[in-house]
Write a structure and sequence with these properties.
single chain, 224 residues, mainly beta, ten-stranded antiparallel barrel, 3 helices, globular
Length: 224
């Protein structure tokens, strides 16, 4: 395994299931585009509906919910304009009359030796990521969070920050990836969650598509 998650996991990366390692092995130099397709069950809270509607303009969270929602996830690695190794993840949820996108850019901060996530197409919310391995699965929890205003970062206090956890594992019985993601908040409780399965294909690409080079202008990263 190589790429941003290996750098954060270190020797623990060897404990991942081989299929999970393969999924997160993208590097800026290999030109590979991974596309997964499956179905998700999606839940969302009611107290945050106005905020969820507003976030759709940034390709962040969304207000819809449902079962067996067609889902795709596209991942590609590249080097940002600021020289940071990064991986774009674009999730698409098909609700029939509308498709919601949830974008994130995961960046390796080499100087601070930490993993950062920038949410939405413009990366308005930045978060530290703390990955670990459990029984071959990749488990990622959020840490400190900031609102990103250009090159300025405003820390989000505990009550305003989100508690995020994602679990990604591979089940050999059905030959599928299984993912569970939850977003909670101390003030409003459950914000959004999805759970489901998918298969994945890898294709050789000719560079990173421009529409997947999200979060431009990352000249400065959050403070340590």
């Amino acid at each position: 395994m190589t790429g941003v998650y290996e750098r954060a996991l270190g020797e623990a990366a060897a404990d991942l299931h081989p299929k999970v390692r393969d999924r997160y092995s993208l590097t800026p130099n290999d030109g590979t585009v991974c596309v997964g397709r499956g179905e998700m069950d999606i839940t969302r809270g009611t107290l945050v509906l106005p905020a969820l509607y507003a976030m759709t303009t940034q390709n962040m969270l969304f207000p819809e919910a449902g079962e067996d929602v067609p889902f795709s996830v596209t991942t590609v690695a590249y080097t940002t304009e600021g020289g940071h190794e990064a991986m774009t993840t674009r999730r698409a949820f098909d609700f029939g009359d509308t498709t919601r996108l949830f974008d994130s850019l995961t960046v390796w901060d080499a100087e601070a030796e930490r993993l950062l996530d920038f949410l939405g197409t413009h990366g308005r919310i930045a978060s530290e990521l703390h990955p670990r391995v459990e029984d071959g699965a990749l488990v990622v929890a959020g840490g400190r969070q900031w609102a990103r205003l250009g090159n300025r970062y405003v820390p989000l206090p505990g009550p305003l920050a989100a508690d995020v956890e994602v679990r990604d594992r591979y089940d050999e019985d059905d030959d599928r990836y299984h993912v569970t993601a939850t977003v909670e908040n101390d003030l409003v409780g459950h914000m959004l969650g999805y759970r489901g399965t998918f298969t994945q294909d890898q294709t050789a690409g000719d560079g990173t598509p421009d529409e997947l080079r999200i979060v431009r202008g990352l000249d400065r990263l959050p403070p340590r």
